[in-house]
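Retro notes, structure queue

What went well: the backlog is down to a handful. What didn't: a couple of records were mislabeled last round, so from now on we paste the full input next to the output in the thread. Example, using Molybdate-anion transporter-like from Phoenix dactylifera:
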Amino acid sequence: MGVVIEREVWEPKPISYVFLFASCFASISLRPFRSRSGGGASTAPFLRFQRKFLLLYSLASVMEGLESVFGEYEYAHYGIKGEQMAMCLAAGAAAALFVGPFLGILSDVKGPRKACLLFCILHLLLGVLKSISRHPSVWVASVCLSLASSVFSFCFETWMVTEHEKQGHRQDCLSDTFWLMTFFESASLVGSQGLANLLFKDFDKGFFSPSAPAALLAIISILYIRKEWNGCQQQSVIGSYRKSFSAHVLNDRRIWLLSWSQSSIHFSMAVFWILWAPTIVADGREVHLSRLYPCFIGSRMLGSTAFPWFFGGISWLHNEEYLTAAYVVAGLSLLIVSYDYQEIGVLVMLFCVYHACVGFILPSLARLRTMYVPNELRGGMISFSLAPASAAVLLALIQGGYRQNLANAMIMALAALGLLAAAGCIHLLTLWRKQPRPNWHKP
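Corresponding output:
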């Protein structure tokens, strides 16, 4: 029996947006406030610190969203074909693979504040390049954007945790900041899409490009960083850092399990953003893709609001056990998509489920990093754990996008299997946590 191609343009019903907004509002309003009791003297300073950081993090998230909101459309405008587009993205993945880990080490050695400044400078250079040139080098833009995304993955979290400890705030307050980071990042991505659609006129008119407001936000962020966090940060000696990194990260099996879990979720997110549109419009189906984007990001926001519920006092299981279930559900949702043809509504629902799991997984992993990774090694650990994801994305782009040796369904299936393997890693981590910690480090 042949597949019937839908001729009418498919779009989500408006009630979907209302449901996601109401669910997020209800989840935040009714969530457990376990940390409200005690420590009242430190509550006001912590809230001020948290609000300042979340403001900066939101500005950085808007920059990330503005530079990637048009995606393939921007490449196509400059005459880039599908194979060339894949190679441009592959160049960015290669930069993240070979340069990203060293940026994480530099962040730990020189201080995460300088890494945050580097992130802003990269976006400023990219914005200036696109604003002054009618036909900017897409290769340079891809590399700059990829390096900025690599730095974004660790610099702000590392800086926040370091400043949190330096200012003497309670350790249990970190979890609130972790899920709020995911929530505000998602909200900023939706806002960046709306801002780009509002300001965008024509790629040939440079200063109407989304890169211009991204450059402006980069300047504002640099000034904000220098004003609010201008204190001297302790720097590490590279020799002692190498010994500490080898002892606490490279020779600890728990960190290897955590690293695989981080790498798998980032690889699946990269695969999703590359393949979700071709998957939905397969067989000539017509869809308002721009109206699906808020559904996915809204689902991630909803998933992040679930984190304090499972981490709060009402939970009778370890956070890792819920995290294992989230990995399984996320993996199965992508596996179903890769296995068989689905109706558009089913695909959108599965992708929303996946993003809800991502919203819960990201702050959970940040909490586990706080438990197992010293703060002075956090940037290097995150950047090294993302290297396998960058290598897998590079392989998928070359073999799938350029050489056409891997089907899209196979790439998505590999991402799903990686998530299921990560569920096994988190399960092992839970079992080992209940046992006395063995001496895995070298003396």
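Agreed that this is the format going forward. Reviewer comment attached to the example: The chain has 19 helices and no strands.
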